[in-house]
Write a structure and sequence with these properties.
The chain is an all-alpha fold and 833 residues long. It has helices spanning 40-45, 59-63, 92-96, 126-136, 139-144, 153-166, 176-187, 206-216, 221-227, 234-250, 262-277, 281-297, 337-366, 378-381, 390-395, 406-410, 427-444, 459-472, 482-490, 494-513, 538-567, 575-593, 620-630, 636-662, 666-675, 680-689, 714-723, 765-780, 787-805, 813-817; strands spanning 69-71, 89-91.
Amino acid sequence: MQNINPIPNANGPGPSPGHKKATATIDSPAKNMRSSIACVRCRRSKVKCVNTGPNTTCRACEASNRECTYPQPVASGAPRASGGSGGATMSIGSVAGAGSGGLGGAGGAERVEAPKKAKPKKPTSSANAAATAASMNTPSSWKECLGAPVLTQAVWQLIFDAFQLHHSPVLPFLHPPTFLNRLRASTANPGSSSGNSPPPEKPHSPLLLLGMLTLTGRHIAPLVSHHAPALATPTAVSEFYASALKYRLKNEDDDSLLVPSLDKVQALVMLSIHEWGQTRKSEAYMWLGLAIRMTGALGLSWVDADDAPATAPYSPQPESDDPLPFKRRKLDNGTSASAKAATAYTVEKEIRRRTFWAVFVLDRSLSSGRYFPSGIPSADADRVQLPSDERGFMFGADTKTGFLNSDSLLHPGRSDESHEIGAGERILAHVVKAMELWGHIQSWTETVDSAPPSSRNSEYARLSAALDAFVESLPHQLEYSENTLQVHFSTRSSSSYAVLHIALFLCRITLERKCLPNIPFHSPHPLGPVEPTKPISSEEERFYSDSAERYLASARDLVTLVSSLQEWNSRIESPFIILALERAARSGLYVYNFPWMDIRGYMTGVSRIHGAEPMGSGEETRKAVEFIQSLKPRWAVAGESFAGLVNMQTCVAEQLGEFIRNDDNGSALEERTRLVKPNQDERTRLFSLLAPPTPKAGPIPVPSSSQGRGPSSEVDTLLLAANQEPVVASGSERWMAVNTPIPAAVVQPQAPPPTVVLKTEEGGSLDALAGFAAQQGKIGNGQEYNSRDRDVEMGEAGIKKEESSTKSGEERRWIDNGVKPSGNWGAVSALES
C-alpha cells in the first residue's frame, strides 16, 4: 500500500487529476488523527471514523473497498441531513473533479468543515435575571408568547379547567366541546387527521386565548415555573399576558381596536376583571365600557327580541333568517347536515347571549352609582333571554328560559305573564338576577334615604323585601344548605352555586350594615344606625336586633361556604369573592371590638343569652382574613383588602381608646366590656394577624461633646439615654389608662453604669444622669419595676400630668400592635381594633 504525502497547502501546487484518493493507513503519519467530521457510512454505523481530514478515504471504507462520502456542509443552525435519510452527500471524487487543480489547485474547491455548535450558556446570575425580566415586557415577547413551547395541549387543558372553576359563573360563554375541538385543531399536526374524521374546526382567536391566560396564568404551576425567575410572582405572569393582550388589541393586524367582534368583547371582559383584581378599577371600568359599546354594535341585546334586525352591522350571524341554509344529506355517522347546522346555530346563538350576560354581570359588579354608573340599562337586558342550563348548552338544545324583568324582580308584588320562568332556567339565570339585585343595593349605599330603615316606606324596606322574595323563590335544589352543597360538588356545579349564594349573602350584609352605628359607644345592644338620645319603641328595638342577626348570620354563612369550597379543593378566586370576604371580615372585626352587638354569638362564638348555644364557632373572622391573606401572591386586590382590614382595626382602636380615656361615659363602656367577654383565644389570633408591622429602631446617634470628650464617651452615652423616653417591656406596656392590673415583666439584670463624679449646677444634665442611673441600678439589682411601682413614685398628680401630655405616645402602643398581653383584658380589650 502506497503512502501519501500530506495534503498540500491551498496556495501550493495541487496533485494531478489522476492522483489517487487520499487514504489513512496504519503506516500513515496521521494514524492517530481523528477528523472533526465523519463519513456517511461511519456516521450511520456509529463507529469511529479514522481519516486525515474531510474528503479523504477513511480506514473503514478502504478496508471494505467502498466509496467514502461525506455529508454536505450546512449553515449554522440548519439541520444536517444524514446518509440514512437520503440526505445530500458529497463525494470526494466530485469535489476533486470540480476543477483541474484538484483539491489544492487554484480552481479547486476549498476544504469546508462543518460549523461547530455553540456551547449552551450557563444559567444567568441574579444580576442578569433583572435584565431578563425587562426583556419580557417587549413587543417581540408579546407577539410570540402564544407560541411558547410550554403551552402544550395538556397545559391548555389546565388553563381551561382553571377558567371553568374560577370564572365560568360570571363568564359562561365558553362552549366546552367547541373550545376543546378548536384547541386540538390549533395544536395538531397538519394532515394528521384521518379521512373519515370531520373537518377541523377553525382555530381560536388569539385575543380569546390571551384573555384566558391573563385570568388563569396565576393559577397554572407550569406557566409560573416557566417564566421564573424573570417573572417572580404569579401576579407578574398574569400581568405579562395582560400586556400582551393590550398590545394585540391596539396593534391588531386584521382590524383596529374599534372594530367590534364577538371574541374582542370576550377578551375585553376578561381584561376588565384582571384590571379590577390589580386594584386598577378605573382602567377596568374603561375596558368594560368599550365592551358594552361593542355589544350594542353587534346587536347582542336584540338576539331574542321579536323585532330584532335581521343582521346587526358587525354581527357574524348569517345573512339568511333560515337557520338551516344547507343541503340535506346524510353523514357517515347518520346525522344529517341540516341537524348539525341547526345545533351549531343554536350553540352560536347561546354563546352570543351568554357573552351579553357576562358583560351585564360585570357591569353590575363594578358599577356603584356615583363615580362608576351602570352602562347597560335594565330595559336592554329585559329583551335578552336568560342563560340556559349547562346540559342544554353542551348539546346545543334549543331550550326556552325566562327573561330578567328587572321591574318585577325589584317589586315582587307585580307580575308579568310574558316573562314567566322557563323550563330550562337553572343556576346561571339566578346568578344574573342576584347580580341585578346587587347592582341596585350597591348603588343605594351611596344615597341618603329620607325614611329610617324601620319604616315600611324606606328604600331599605323595598330592597330587603325584593331580596327576601328572590331567596324564597329559589327551587329546592338551589337553596342554601350543607347537603345541597354536597350535591353540587358531585355534579361539578359548585362554582355557580357558590357564586349565587355569595352574591346573596353580600347583598344582605351590605343592606343590614346601614342599620348599625359605626361605633356604638352608648348602645348596649343594636338600636339603629344613629345612637338614640331617648328610648325607642319596642317594635323598633326588635327590628334592629333582627337586622343585626341577619347581618352577622350572612357573614357567618358566607365564610362557611368559602371554607367548604376550600375543603373540597374547589375554592373560587376572583375579585368579587375577595370583595365579599372583606365585607364578612369587617363584620367579624366589628363584633369582636363591640361584642355586645353579637347577642347570639354568630361571629364571636359566645352567646349573650343565658343557657343558649352560640350560633357560630368564632373562627369565621380569622378564616376570612387568612383566606384573603393567602390570595395576596395572586391578586393585588387581596393585598389592598388586607391593608384595609388592618387600617380598620387600628382606627377603631384609637377612637375607642380616646373615648375611654376622655369621655364621661368611658367608665360605663369599661364596665360593659368587663361583663361581655368574647372568645379571647380567637381574638388574640385575629388581632395578631392584623397587627401592623413594627418599624425597626435605628441606631441612636451619639453627639460629640463640647468639652473635649469623644463620641464614644460613656458619660455622653448615658446622658443621651437619660434624655430618651424610657422603652417599656412588652409585658408592661402602658395601656394603664383604665388602671387594669398587668403582671410585670421581669427585666434581665444589667450591670450598673460606671460612677462618674463631676461638679455641675443643680438641675443640670448630670442630675438627669443621676436619676437615670438610680433607676437602672434599681432594676439591675433584680427588683421588678412595673407600671404600678412607677405610678407610686410619680404620684397621682404626676400620672394625670403625664397622661395629658402623651395621648398619642406610648400609652396607645397596644392599639397599634393589635396584640394584648396576658392578664385581665379589662375595658380596653374590647377596643383593640
